[in-house]
Amino acid sequence: MSLKIYVGNMNYATTAETLTSLFSQYGEVVSATVIKDRFTEQSKGFGFVEMSDEAAAGTAIATLNGKELEGRRLRVNVAEERAPRTDRPRRDFNRDGGYNRGGNRDGGYNRGYNRDGGRGYGRPRGDYDAPKDDDRY
Predict the structure, then answer these.
(1) Has residue 41 been placed in a domain?
(2) What is the tally of structural domains in the chain?
(3) In this structure, is residue 112 part of a structural domain?
(4) Residue 132, domain member (yes or no)
(5) For residues 109-127, b (16+ Cβ closer than 10 Å) or e, as one string?
(6) What percent of the chain has a predicted confidence (pLDDT) above 70?
(7) How many CB atoms lie within 10 A of CB 34?
(8) Residue ranges making up the domain that contains 50
(9) Helix (H) or strand (E) holding 35
(10) What's the CA gap between 103 and 105, in Å, rounded?
(11) Whole-number pLDDT of residue 10
């Protein structure tokens, strides 16, 4: 059974290949990932390594925790599952596709849209009589 390992306090220049070569000394590395910012692609200074053997992973954790790599002292331990966030309110969509916020009927985000979800400018689509040629004058 494989074991996922957290590697923190990494140098921002550390790559997944560096992690793979470092951890492969202790056993088979299934995957190595450096976590990056989604907009700038800059490393966030931590990553994850998945090893195929739990005993080899335990040896790697014991040996590499506190070891210096590229000028930084690594923090290595078993990766823990992240708990779901409870500090944000649940996003609730209303029937028109907007967010339910505020006290008004449409949540405040769908002003200007009719009930069918189409853009309405004062009157809903299809619910009025089109002007006839003789109605112009």
Answers:
(1) yes
(2) 1
(3) no
(4) no
(5) bbeebbeeeeeeeeeeeee
(6) 64
(7) 21
(8) 3-78
(9) strand 29-36
(10) 7
(11) 97
- Determine the straight-line distance between the first and last CA of the chain, rounded to whole angstroms: 83
**Residue 122 to residues 97, 111, 125, 132, 136: CA-CA distances in angstroms?**
20, 11, 10, 20, 20
Residue 126 lies in a domain: no
Q: Are 29 and 23 in contact (CB under 8 A)?
A: yes
CATH code, domain with 62: 3.30.70.330
Extract the tokens encoding 103: 């006290």
pLDDT tens per residue across span 7-36: 999 999 999 999 999 999 999 999 999 999
Q: At what angle do helices 54-64 and 16-23 cross, to 10 degrees?
A: 110
| Whether the Cβ atoms of residue 31 and residue 50 lie closer than 8 Å to each other | yes
Locus of tokens 């009157």: 123
Q: Strand 3-8 to strand 43-51: parallel, antiparallel, or no bridges (unpaired)?
A: antiparallel
